[in-house]
Amino acid sequence: MEARGWAVDSEAAIEPFRPALIARKGPLRYAVELKSVVEGRPDRVLPLLAQAILQASRYAAELDMRPLAVVLVGRASASLMQKVERFQRDYAPDVAVGLISEAGGSLFIGPGLESLNREQPRARGIGKPVRPRKASNLFSDLNQWILKVLLAPELPEQLLSAPRGEYATGSDLADAAGISAMSASRFVRRMQEEGFLDGSGRALRLVRRGELFRRWQAAALRSSPELRMAYLIPAGGARQLHKAVSKLEGCVGLFAAADLLGLGHVSGAVPQVYVRRLVPPQGADWPGLVPSAPGEPPQLILKQANAPESLFRGAVRIGDVMVADVLQVWLDASAHPSRGAEQADFLRHGVLAGVLGEQA
């Protein structure tokens, strides 16, 4: 813990009815009870964890601190970590817990503790070369969704569909975002390593937003497959678009989405509709659409979503169609080569002015 900025005092253990350790970092104070067992079996670990929870809670109440129960094992499997997460969530949600593996992995659940989490190293065979571990993608599909969850309280519900609250721990964030605790823990750890997430207060808070959003913009520059389509029955207008989107189970994006959100700035652009996969359902043709004839402008562009979880989870429903959220529109407009910069600047200086932070 000391390597991560924590001050640890072990002298408290010499007095009776006192914790094994006291850990301090900023305003956080933890009364820590430690247990250890060689075998990382749930039937051995969970009873010790329960005992440590009871003792840490007693010590913390006397010392006006937060309780932290920690169990040290020889090796912690992914299954054991999941059982520890579930045990804490079901029986002691107000107590911080930790599971430390002598093999190198660790799991911590509690305010300010996410930076201590480490993935369990994979066992390597003797003589096998050591390969560098690939760094996690800061702007993976799920990570983009988590960013939207953290930003949601700053945006109206009609512009972004996401839970709205404050989250003190990665576990709280996982519950709200509907993702695994390990995914949330990896996100929190990576964001803190990059200096974009502050966990020293009562809730996780995004910082250095200018740089964060510049990097998010850069990650959104990836091109995605698309199909240039025309309506099977020639027509135009919003009604035709809404009907096509509903049949496709798609999501209106980019300029058309901005119009539907009441934030349009570019007119005359071909509507874009995102789908999860650019393959017709059950091998059939796209309902109500045909490929546009060579040399003719399309009436609609189908695009495969690069980050479908982030896109569809954050989308808002307007009438009978799904529409990309305002953050997604800003990202997509930033990457669009034709008049996208105009739409992105309109959003940045308008509804997103207080969200994005200073931009270059």
Short description:
With 360 residues, this protein is an alpha/beta fold.
Description:
- The chain has 360 residues and is an alpha/beta fold.
- The protein has 3 domains: 2-116, Trna Endonuclease, Chain: A, domain 1 (3-Layer(aba) Sandwich); 141-219, Winged helix-like DNA-binding domain superfamily/Winged helix DNA-binding domain (Arc Repressor Mutant, subunit A); 226-356, no CATH class.
- It is 35% helix and 19% strand.
- A 7-stranded mixed β-sheet has the order 12-9-13-11-10-15-14. The protein has a 6-stranded mixed β-sheet with strand order 1-2-3-4-5-6.
- Strand 14 (316-318) and strand 15 form a beta hairpin.
- Helix 8 (254-260) packs antiparallel against helix 10 and helix 10 crosses helix 11 (340-348).
- The longest helix has 22 residues, at 42-63.
- It is elongated and about 80 Å long.
- The chain starts with 6 loop residues before the first strand and ends with a helix.
> What is the string of SSEs from the N terminus onward?
EEEHEHEEHHHEEHEHEHEEEHEEHHH
Main sheet properties: 7 strands, mixed
- Indicate the percent of residues in helices: 25-40%
Q: What is the total tally of β strands?
A: 15
What is the domain tally? 3
Rg from alpha-carbon coordinates: 25 Å
- Uncertain ranges: none
Count of DSSP H/I helices: 12
Structural class: alpha/beta
Cα-to-Cα separation, first versus last residue: 37 Å
Measured by DSSP, the beta-strand proportion falls in 15-25%
So what's the oligomer here? single chain
Which overall shape is indicated by the principal axes computed on the Cα atoms? elongated
- Overall residue-averaged pLDDT value: 87
